[in-house]
Amino acid sequence: MAAITAALIKQVREETGAGMMDVKKALTEAEGDVARAKEIIRAKGIAAAGKREGRKAQEGTIASKVVKTADGEVGYAVEINSETDFVAKTPKFVEFAESVLDAAIAADANNVDDVLAAKTADGDVKLDIEQAAALFGEHVKVGQFAKIAGPHVEIYAHRKSAEMPPSIVALIATDEAGEKVAHEAALQISAMSPRWLTREDVDPAVLESERRIATEKTSDELAAKGKPQAVIDKIAPKIVEGRLNAFYKETVLLDQDYVKDPSKTVGKLFDEAGAKAIAFARIEVGKGDEED
Fold first, then answer.
1. Which residues lie within the region annotated Involved in Mg(2+) ion dislocation from EF-Tu (predicted)?
2. Which pTM was predicted?
3. Which of 66, 83, 84 is nearest to 75 (CA)?
4. How far apart are CA 201 and CA 266, in angstroms?
């Protein structure tokens, strides 16, 4: 039996595209025979996993859970992508997504890199993803990840249809009083896709860009109407502020009109409950960073 060295494993990995553990198992079964190991890998469908890496995985599901802690609650959500919704809706794929979430929670993950490094029964999530690609016959990857904490965390998982797994998950953390309205807020987040919780949270660079655009647009419109520059300088600032307020109402959760009662904002909904929103997150399948 030939020695199964790191160089031998590297050679078979490069020639097959299979994961390290799969290559090691195949070489062990083949007693170090490279040709036989490659046959074993092909027979098990593992070799194709590497080739699948170049294919887009924009379907999938989102697994989510709230965990109680000594300080309150922590909400986790992880997106697991596949190439087709046919695979995404299978019980095995949904079960796999749940197993990744459990590993992420056990590792107290804070980002996607932490999720991939989280330990599992077979090694880590990164290795499990490689093996899942062979099992499902598609490119599989970890997409977006969210984690928020507070005295109370609410999760709403939206399904496009009864037979499909969750495709949008909204999480919101509130104080204890916020539990009364947290579900409504989670529905709002799911439906209206806010980007920030408060005006103070808006990215300064984004706000400055919006202000420039609003200023230029307002000036051009007033000039087109024949207004002299002195008049433009006087009235433009108020129009610009109005446009920025419209931007806030679209992108800031607490400024948004409450979908079930547009006569009040989501901020007013919390005020009426004597509650406070602390943080939120929203994940939608296929809406994360584009793959290279």
1. 84-87
2. 0.78
3. 66
4. 16
The alpha carbon dihedral of 266, 271, 274, 278 has a sign of positive
Segment 186-228, tens digit of pLDDT: 999 999 999 999 999 999 999 999 999 999 999 999 999 999 9
Query: Are residues 47 and 118 located together in one domain of the fold?
Result: no
Residue 220 within a domain = no
* 78 three-state secondary structure: strand
d(CA 281, CA 190): 9
Q: Which region, left, alpha or beta, applies to residue 274 given φ > 0 means left and ψ of -120 to 50 means alpha?
A: left
Structure tokens of 62?
């989102």
Q: How many separate domains does the chain show?
A: 2
Show the domain range for 80. 59-198+275-284
Neighbours of 81 (CB within 10 A): 26
Render pLDDT for 101-125 as a digit per residue (tens, 0 to 9): 999 999 999 999 999 999 999 899 9
Say if residue 279 is in the same domain as residue 150.
Answer: yes
Do 161 and 279 contact (CB within 8 A), yes or no? Answer: no
Task: Output DSSP code: residue 175.
Answer: -
pLDDT over 60 (residue 291):
no
Based on the fold, state whether residues 159 and 24 are members of the same structural domain. Answer: no
